[in-house]
Amino acid sequence: MSKIIIYGIPNCDTVKKVFNWFKENKIDFEFHDYKKSGVSKEKLTNWSKQVGWETILNKKSTSWRELSAEMQSKVTNATEAIKLMMQNNSIIKRPVIEQDETIIFVGFDKTKYEQKLL
Fold first, then answer.
1. CB 91, CB 55: distance < 8 Å
2. What is the fold of 4-117?
3. Whole-number Cα distances in Å, 82 to 2, 32, 33, 105, 112
């Protein structure tokens, strides 16, 4: 199996669930910590092209809810969403999981993980 990279924040409960699932199923992965290593504009653009910026931008997050209504209303396209995600990487949905530069999952869904990886 080719290299899998999990993008997220280590103290996120969903990311912890994903780590546990991968470890329990003995699937190797690398971890990319948004907070320590950031996420490039190119990576966010690539992800947005693959699954849509609406999937990558987490509008259910505390970070989103803390934005002013004016700031939220400006996010109407990929360019604005990427700009916001570069400024505040806590607003990126977690985890984003890539295999060979292709997103295979956004978020945690045990059934989908089992179907694709086991």
1. no
2. Glutaredoxin (3.40.30)
3. 28, 18, 18, 19, 27
